[in-house]
Amino acid sequence: MKQLIFFLMCFASFGSKAQTDLPLGLWIDNAERILRAQTSASVLKMNINKAEYQRDFTLLVLTDDRNDTQKVMVRMLGPALWRGNMTLKIDDRISFFEPRNKRTTIMSSSMLASSWMGSHFSNDDLMRETDLARHYSYEAKEAWQKDARNYHLIELTPQPSAPVVWAKVLYRLYIDNDRVFPEQVTYYRRKEDKHPERTLTYSEVKNMDGMLVPTVMEMRVSDKPQEFTRMHYQKIKFNTDLAASKFSEQAFL
Amino acid sequence: MIHKLALRNLLRNKRRSCLTSVIIVFAFSMMVLFMGLSDGGHKAMIDIGVRMGLGHIIVQHKSFSDDPSLQHLIVQPNQLIQQIRQNKPELTAVSRLRVDALIQAGRHGVALTISGVEPAKEVKMSAIADQRAITKGKTLAEFPQSKTFHHLDGIVIGETLANNLEVRVGDTVTITAKPASGADLSRAAFVVAGIFKTGLHELDTFWAEVPLHTLQALLGVPDQVSQISLYSLETPESLAHTTTQLQTSFNHVNISPWQTAAPELYSAVTLDAAGMYLLMLIVYVVVAVGILNTVLMSTFKRKKEFTMMIALGSRPSTVSKIVLLEAVYLSAFSLTLGLALGLWGHHHFATQGLDFKEVFGTAMEAGGVLLPDKFYSILDASKLSLSVLFVFLLTLVVTLIPAIRAGHRSPLAATQDA
């Protein structure tokens, strides 16, 4: 159903932005999915750098987008204190598993805004309720060429009654060999704001499992310039046949 | 004759009579003043309390107080309101739907209580987001309601919440809540229509109001509300009677007075009233001891006088009556003066009000209610006359024993003592 809505939105955006003739919605969707493909299994290091503390996690992330229900499973591999902690997201439902007391917590609405494992990503970012491809309309702001690549800056504006918190999102992406790569996403609190509230940057494009993908994602908030959360992909396997049982609460035990 | 004697006796020792009189006048006038201010304060607390999202009478689903979930809502509230108003046309009814939710703006999010209200009715009855409480922007009633798909509904939020979320009037916020079906979370966007300040931390930080129909749609509970608040101009006694009457007529819902619906406010008022009664008791004791002291001293000092009267042929009861009458005149005079002084003070505070902020430098919160900066003295005539009567009787009781003893002294023993 979500995909159907997405395609309808894409068609709508093609219609409304016919003068640009650019499939902006499709590009953004492709860029958002670059690290996921149909299914993906990845190991990544997450480095949280806050004024109060520094944390390093090693995570195993499994994703499955083969049907309408988006599934994501995050298992913590290290450090030892956190080993076995899991987060499971099936569509809009998130549950957390704590192995020491074998307790599963289903996320409530009040937990949405809290950060995921103390990082600069919120549970809401994991939920992807504020789906960029679904709730926003697109406008090509700028296009340029650099290093034989076509760069585009796209401004995303929320649909009139979309339930989203960002009044403006600037998406910078480039197209290389017909593939869309995200480079920077800046989130603005208000439409007229000059400075973004937070910035997500993709970098270090490397070959993983036969595909070129950005391997570093970094989130920074503007009012604390020294702080960031960086996710560094170590290994990724795309389009493997992941069993449905991996994405159930039975997999916690 | 004995009246004349009693009055003469009082005037003979002017200093003693005056001192006793001053004690009674001062104590009684203070008591009248405090009684008025305390009752006025309680009334202000209750008035503010019921206007802060409560109501004089609250109608809820039978199980709502035990489990305030979306499964326990009142269905078709308007029908029920119509029936209630047929029984009691003097009551004003307001429907509200409340739920815990998450408000988000940018990367900030706060868990809070969201109240779905009927803006046009709410603005008249509630003090949370009325014209006076709104510091920036508009009330929900003034904000244009969403008529088309391309227009967001308004939301009013507390001042501290607005600071925490870093939002201002005109910004967009989202509300996320778990709908009645218990399935995935529902989310809707709102435009900040206004920012209110009540002075109460809980409301200013964790409270927001949106139009009722929007919240009903978000939660998937069409034509259902958490509570119907009834507002009345009746006295507390007749309010209790109305509540009982309504509960008998509509036994499928739970109808409770504000005392049950807001026990913390009720306890605060009761506790304060208990403190006042304790103060009154102390005043009574002071008055009683003052009079007892004077009467005892005067009877001791006038032993010779009394025995002389008895020796000259007065009956013991005459002597007792004279002593008793002295106390009656003294207390009657002092009470009248005290009452006049107290009423004068009451009149001042009833018309000018007591400026709480001026006296204590800060606003005061009690029972989850912020007392108004100024409150006005209120005196209950029956309570006042009862106090006068009580002090008067107390004087008589206290004087009784010394008076009887004064009349039963033997002239022989008195001369031997001398």
Automatic annotation (TrEMBL), chain A:
Signal peptide extent: 1-18
Domain (Uncharacterized protein TP-0789): residue spans on this chain: 69-251
Key words of the record: Signal
Top-level taxon in the UniProt lineage: Bacteria
Family matches, as InterPro entries: TP_0789-like
Protein name per Swiss-Prot or TrEMBL: Uncharacterized protein TP-0789 domain-containing protein
Automatic annotation (TrEMBL), chain B:
Domain MacB-like periplasmic core: 17-243
InterPro entries, sorted: ABC3_permease_C, Lipoprotein-release_system, MacB_PCD
Domain of life: Bacteria
Domain ABC3 transporter permease C-terminal as annotated: residue spans: 278-411
Subcellular location: Cell membrane
Major subcellular location class: membrane
Membrane topology designation: Multi-pass membrane protein
Annotated TM spans: 18-37, 276-300, 321-344, 384-404
Keywords on record: Cell membrane, Membrane, Transmembrane, Transmembrane helix
Keyword Mitochondrion carried by entry: no
The name this protein goes by in its record: ABC transporter permease
Organism, as annotated: Pseudoalteromonas aurantia 208
